[in-house]
Amino acid sequence: MKISEQDVAYVAGLARLSLTPEELKTMTGKMDAMLGYVDKLNELDTDAIVPTAHAVPMANAFRGDQVIPSSGSAAALANAPQGTDGCFQVPRVIE
């Protein structure tokens, strides 16, 4: 076994999970199976694989930058509750 019931109980405690003894036994078996699978994956030779390789070609999904005219400060301040000298006025928070 790769993992003990004490280890599973510890991890469950970290996750703030309360497991019954039956659930603890079931989770121990499931986590042991997962760790066995990961151990099997570690047997693969990945020396020739580039760490950032993808199965499909990746492309940036962002659009290019475009210069467009802004709406201007007058339009922005039109929605402000208060404005002073072309700026947003906010209540004082520091005494």
Count of helix runs: 3
Using only CA atoms, what is the Rg?
A: 29 Å
State the low-pLDDT regions, or none. Answer: none
Percent of residues in β-strands? under 5%
Mean of pLDDT = 88
Question: So what's the overall shape?
Answer: elongated
Strand sequence of the main sheet, in spatial order?
A: 1-2
CATH architecture type of the domain at 5-41: Orthogonal Bundle
Broad structural category: mainly alpha
CATH homologous superfamily placement of the domain at 5-41: Glu-tRNAGln amidotransferase C subunit, N-terminal domain
Name the helix and strand elements from N-terminus to C-terminus, one letter apiece: HHHEE
| Fraction of helical residues | 25-40%
Distance between the termini: 63 Å
CATH topology of the domain at 5-41: Histone, subunit A
Major sheet details: 2 strands, antiparallel
Number of strands: 2
CATH class annotation of the domain at 5-41: Mainly Alpha
